Amino acid sequence: MIDVKDLSVAFGQGEARKQVVKSVSLSVAKGETLGIVGESGCGKSTVLRSLAGLDRHWEGEIKLAGTAVAKTRTREQLLLAQMVFQDPYSSIHPRHRIERVLVEPMQSMKRGDGWDKVGPALEQVGLPAAFAERFPHELSGGQRQRVAIARALMLEPEVLLLDEPTSALDVSVQAEVLNLLSDLREQRNLTYVLVSHDLAVIGHMCDRVLVMKDGSFVDELTRDDLKHGRTHSDYARELFAASYL
Amino acid sequence: MTVPDPILTVRDLTVRFARSSVKAVNGVSFDLGAERLGVVGESGSGKSTVGRALMRLLPPSATTEASQLDFEGAPLLTRSEREMRRLRGNDMALIMQDPRYSLNPVLPIGKQVAEAAMLHFKLGKKDAYARAADMLGRVRIADVARTMDLYPHQISGGMGQRVMIAMMLLAKPRLVIADEPTSALDVSVRGDVLRLLDDLVRENNSGLLLISHDIRMVAAFCERILVMYKGVVVETLTKLEDAQHPYTRGLIAAMPDPRNPVRRLQVLDRKAIDAVGVQP
Q1: Which residues of B are less than 8 Å from A182 in CB distance?
Q2: CB contact under 8 A, A204 and B267
Q3: Is A187 an 8 Å CB contact of chain B?
Q4: Can you list the residues of chain B whose pLDDT is less than 70?
Q5: Are B261 and A204 in contact (CB under 8 A)?
Q6: Is the distance from CB of B256 to CB of A204 less than 8 angstroms?
Q7: Helix axes B187-203, B157-169, angle to 10 degrees
Q8: H/E run at residue A95
């Protein structure tokens, strides 16, 4: 589904130039969930933003559903992958009603006005359809993250890019959102790329985990490795030890 | 649940906001000696309000009542704002969640820490800077001289939290309240910061109240845990395995654990919790 070869991203010019992602390659099969774990600043979110088409100064090759994408994407390519951001408090327009938040991707992608799809979209993520009339501040953090997931699904993408989707939430609410994501993955045969600093969340959700450090992948762990606490590099071992304090 | 030589004695602490009849904190009682006590709960359970009520830092709209609230044997609630100001920072300190918001963004690190030294020890500028440098060294900041000239946005989150700890523990307070001190930090730095906090608190023979939503971390770090739900302490634990209340059990079960993979995580059954009751 996703094929990335030698992806590099740098920010800044001249002396201040900083190579944030250093020639990484990864591939994700259809229906698979890939996790990327690492500390802040390791470049994991930058990889995700390049996959989503938000950052446009990457170098290398990104293939979505078998076709290579250019820096500027066509509408069809943009429809393939949608993103869910970390903070539900800042990723939803505070002065738009939920219905307007949900129809915006439909309208900007010229997929019709989308008003009739608001109700089913909300119900699909476990919220009452009546929430369409509400403003974001009338919802809790977990409910807002459900809205953000509903918005990402409005365009029926095949890939969901999840950037720390639960790190702003309580564990109890996190469990609900993670369950929702698992259910949606089954119903729609979605492919996920999940970025998080929380190994426990990654381990619960993912089939395969890449450990990232300073812009490169230093380790790859399978579900079985995670279960038995097996690692193949020093850094991954440290990360493991720190996570189960 | 009596502790010899308690630093803090709290009985029936109740906090209400404005004219609301809802009690944000409802009849909380505990003693704190020279130990590490954890307070866990979800957002809105009242755990941070407890911390702020102890520091008397709640907004004027809040009504704080308690049948007993003693700090080092003397009642806290009857003190004037002026006396409280002398107490805060000197004898009791609050470490907050995010160093990016609790440090002054337009002052260099060194100046901020030295300011605390000047205020609490009535030192001159030069002595205060020396004291600040010493304290920053003790929180294991590598290049103290360079760091003191930096502004908060130029240092990492973990370093910022260490600076906060240095500033707060400079005056060797008897009571340290840490409100989510590590939740803005990476897991790899989290352990360091907690160990550092623990070392300094032990050295000063102080009491530490660690407020967090992360029940696993609190259980690993604290000697006793208070579990709060809807403003009430539903359970006091020494080990997670002893948890009896459905709320505590629900919280523990909701945490993903890759070593015991499950297909779906358990979610809190709030009806069952409310059926058991949350009476103080």
Answers
A1: 263-264
A2: no
A3: no
A4: 1-4, 278-280
A5: yes
A6: yes
A7: 10
A8: none
| Intra-chain end-to-end CA distance of chain A, in Å | 36
Half-sphere exposure of B221 (CA within 13 A, CB side): 31
Stated pTM of the model: 0.86
Instruction: Name the helix (H) or strand (E) containing A142.
Output: helix A141-153
ipTM above 0.85, yes or no: no
Q: Which of A107, A130, A135, A105 is nearest to A119 (CA)?
A: A130
Q: State the virtual CA torsion across A41, A42, A45, A46 in degrees, nearest 10.
A: 100
Which is it for strands A159-163 and A81-84: parallel, antiparallel or unpaired?
parallel
Say what the pLDDT of residue A245 is. 54
Report residue A128's pLDDT band, with 50, 70 and 90 as the boundaries: very high
Please report the pLDDT score of residue B91 as a whole number: 92
For residue A211, the chain B residues in CB contact (below 8 A) are none
* CA–CA distance, A81 with A156 (Å, rounded to integer): 9
Structure confidence at residue B4 (pLDDT) = 65
* Interval A119-124 mean pLDDT: 93
Q: Which residue of B has its CA nearest to A181?
A: B264
Average pLDDT over residues A219-228: 89
Helix (H) or strand (E) holding A23: strand A18-28
The closest of B245, B39, B258 to A227, measured between CA atoms, is B258
Q: Which residue has the tokens 């809105």?
A: B44
Q: Is A175 part of the contact surface with chain B (CB cutoff 8 Å)?
A: yes
At residue A123, the pLDDT reads 93
Q: Is A87 on the interface with B (CB under 8 A)?
A: no
- Tokens standing for residue B260: 């015991």
pLDDT at position B278, please?
66
Q: How long is chain A?
A: 245
Contacts of B194 in chain A (CB under 8 A): 245
pLDDT recorded at residue B279:
65
Domains and CATH numbers, chain A: 1-10+24-80+194-217 (3.40.50.300)
What's the gap in Å between the CA of B198 and the closest CA on chain A?
14
**Binding-site residues on chain B for chain A (CB distance < 8 A):** 42-43, 157, 186-188, 190-191, 194, 213-217, 220-221, 250-251, 254-259, 261-268
Indicate the pairing of strand B74-75 with strand A2-11.
unpaired
Q: Is the pLDDT of residue A171 over 70?
A: yes
CB contact under 8 A, A203 and B258: yes
Distance from CA of B207 to the nearest CA of A (A): 21
Average pLDDT, stretch A59-76? 91
The residue type at B251 = L
